[in-house]
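Q: I have 147 residues here and want to know how they pack in 3D. Can you give me a structure?
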Amino acid sequence: MSPRLAGALPPDLAELHPDRWTAPFWAAAAEHRLVCARCADCGTYRMPPTAFCHVCRSQEVTWVELPGTGAVYTFTIVRHPVIPEVRASVPYVLAVIELDGAPGARLVANVLVSDPMAVHIGMPVSVAWDDVSDEVTVARFVPRPPD
């Protein structure tokens, strides 16, 4: 298990229930690899992974490994704990990350920063793997210099 990352939610909130559509994502995360489902018929990226392609309705999927970088598409700074378990984590940044290497694919994740006010739309980020337990690894993101 890794040390707790500033701005990350408590590990006891990371309970996974993978199904046949999401299990390959979580298996890759455990290996610190970021992957995205892509429709095997039309090539549309599907994140989060879904049972049917929203373009052609196919259920056929291939998994593509991504570079682990992207940009903040939108975000919010959570300042008030909705549940008592997150009280020690506020403020934290919850963002939608537009993933490099998978046009149109976005992932909801924390952005780990010491100053939440520094986060902005378009901010380049890279994945920071958080091994929250022996069974669960979560993708968080940290700022990176612009290309």
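Q: Anything worth noting?
A: The chain is about 5% helix and 35% strand. The longest strand covers residues 69-78.
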